[in-house]
Amino acid sequence: MHKQSLDLVSAQLNEGSSSSQLAIESTLPPVSAPVKQINDYVELKKRIKQEGLLNKQPVYYTYKLISIIGMLALSVTLLLVVHNFWFQLANAVLMAVASAQLGFLGHDGGHRQIFHSTRKNEILTLITGNLFIGMSNGWWLDKHNAHHAHPNEMDMDPDLDIGVLAFSDEDVRSKKGFQRWLVKHQKYFFLPLLALLGLDLQQRSIRYLLTHRKEKYHLLETVLLIAHYILYFGLLFYCLNPWQVLIFLVIHQTLFGVFLGSAFAPNHKGMPVLEKGSQIDFLRRQVLTSRNVHGGFLNDFWYGGLNYQVEHHLFPNMPRNNLRQAQKIVSAYCQERSIAYYETGAIQSFREILQFLHAVSAPLREKKVRTKRTGFGIRILLGKIL
Q1: Which of 33, 222, 328, 350 has its CA 20 to 30 A from that of 178?
Q2: Are 211 and 142 in contact (CB under 8 A)?
Q3: Which residues of 24-51 are buried (b: 16+ CB within 10 A; e: fewer)?
Q4: CA torsion angle for 128, 129, 134, 140 (degrees, to 10)?
Q5: pTM
Q6: What is the 3-state secondary structure (H, E, C) of 108-147?
Q7: Taken in order 247, 250, 251, 253, is the CA torsion positive or negative?
């Protein structure tokens, strides 16, 4: 497997630029990218198509649909028939796993990986998203399409627009009040914040449907979202008492967020950040801003295929089970073209993310020397933390 360090990834993005700072150095200004030819991607896509890796995989996705919906059905059945609350705490974990897997399945449908028919993919994503996990399909599509078009590009990638985190010097300076304090210590808050991801997706979905009434399936999305909450809370209150409902809900929703966040975060966080409007060809834009996470089939399940982030960004409509084979072709091709291709382990990926977050927020922790005039002259004030 062809592996490159983050230093080489950043060096290629900084090629031809006077700036040579890396994605995990202290000040982290967004890097400028040079203009490249686009024919490299055309050749790579030709090789991928020759291997049939963009062909639909009906058998695989039939299995995924049955197994994931079956997992959710099992969790609901256990809620109805088992009257031991300690057992239901474990069931909350099972429901969180099922919810995350439904999210990944909806992600595949949103990228048209499952069916040839756009309508069938949309129906699937409305069911898995709005009905099963309470996330608006329209909101997710708007956000995710923008991310794919501009990964890690300042002011263009919505995944960099997180109020309680900062990814550049400019981002750090824009924070005020409590957000500024959180960013100052963001290295320590990042992992706990993942627990809130599921709830954040749900509240953003509600706000989106309230403000985007011309969205394609607005009425249907709204009805399905309301149905989700009626069925979800109705089931919990039917099977459990109020305190038990609260505990079950906290476990389910926080673990749902952790499972999703642990799969999403390694994709781009801690990788080079592009300036807005950076001129860089599609192939290098996707490869140099993405991180793969190596591992076996358990990784493929846990990450929902997003551990092959480079391949997914290059070929968003590629069925998930073909990504592993595509990785061999893409990594070898990048080596031929001297394009830095980055892959690491799960633990190391989070180590790099935390290093990045700590480095970018360093200016907020620097001690400043400030002078203040008094009646006795000038007094030096040390240790002032911004």
Answers
A1: 350
A2: no
A3: bbeebebbbbeebeeebbeebeeebeee
A4: 170
A5: 0.86
A6: HHHCCCCCCCHHHHHHHHHHHHHHHHCCCHHHHHHHHHHH
A7: positive
